[in-house]
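Section 5: illustrative case.
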């Protein structure tokens, strides 16, 4: 009877016999895949490359290891080794494909700190398996971390739909599934955790909408011989759904004028400048995440 009960509880969040071989092979495979995907230029600024930047996927890996470990020490060591292998492997795979070459490892310093912290976090995280209130106390900081990342992903969806949509949905699912599956034998903690998850989901969705944190502001054109601008110049964006443009004066020893942009989404459009003599110049504009491409449109 006891054996059958254990079989029933077997899932991603407990019951799997997680051997050291599985941990090492998993770390190698995941590290290589994340590194290779991060080298695909066409996937830039999408959910597929988010694991190389954000923590959401790695939190899932950590919880999976913790929930299928045999003891505090087993959990701590397996978490540490998994990240010690997978994280530098991501950068190693990228070396032949990026301009920085071996210099890309300068970014690993940040992840190395988190890798070292995986040992104590894995040790403490093992208490998630106890189905007690302190397990929820351990889980909540991770849920808050996920909600903060979710806010960034939702902002990305609003700015560059459907980019980052999968990442946003992954965060939403995580905030619901973790408390439900980790505390499956304690209904009270389970539903308290679910309530916290729902509150955090609301925060993750509403925060970027209210704060407009995803908006990209920049100057896309400034006064020059080729592009003359002054206080009498005018500027028009072909499609207002991308944001708005205005002529902005910058005062200093010598005042000058620029076309200031407030972009609310990415995409391709055009804008037109009109100088004081009434001459119109049309530019093709591609808006990206925190950058843009501008080119004067050739007259037909």
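Designed sequence:
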């Amino acid at each position: 009877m006891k054996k059958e009960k254990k079989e029933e509880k077997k899932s991603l969040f407990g019951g799997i016999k997680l051997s050291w071989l599985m941990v090492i092979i998993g770390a190698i495979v995941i590290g290589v895949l994340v590194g290779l995907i991060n080298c695909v230029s066409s996937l830039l600024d999408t959910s597929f490359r988010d694991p190389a930047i954000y923590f959401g996927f790695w939190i899932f890996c950590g919880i999976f290891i913790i929930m299928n470990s045999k003891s505090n020490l087993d959990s701590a060591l397996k978490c540490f080794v998994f990240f010690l292998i997978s994280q530098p492997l991501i950068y190693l795979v990228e070396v032949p494909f990026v301009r920085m070459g071996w210099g890309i490892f300068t970014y690993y310093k940040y992840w190395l700190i988190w890798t070292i912290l995986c040992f104590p976090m894995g040790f403490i995280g093992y208490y998630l398996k106890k189905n007690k209130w302190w397990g929820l106390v351990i889980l909540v900081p991770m849920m808050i971390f996920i909600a903060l990342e979710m806010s960034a992903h939702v902002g990305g969806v609003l700015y560059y739909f459907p980019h980052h949509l999968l990442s946003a949905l992954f965060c939403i699912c995580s905030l619901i599934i973790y408390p439900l599956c980790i505390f499956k034998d304690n209904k009270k903690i389970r539903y308290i955790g679910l309530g916290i998850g729902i509150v955090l989901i609301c925060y993750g969705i509403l925060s970027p909408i209210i704060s407009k944190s995803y908006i990209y502001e920049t100057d896309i054109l400034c006064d020059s011989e080729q592009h003359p601008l002054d206080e009498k110049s005018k500027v028009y964006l072909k499609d207002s759904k991308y944001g708005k443009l205005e002529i902005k004066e910058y005062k200093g020893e010598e005042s000058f004028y620029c076309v200031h942009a407030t972009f609310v989404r990415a995409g391709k459009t055009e804008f037109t400048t009109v100088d004081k003599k009434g001459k119109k110049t049309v530019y093709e504009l591609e808006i990206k995440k925190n950058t843009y491409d501008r080119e004067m449109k050739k007259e037909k």
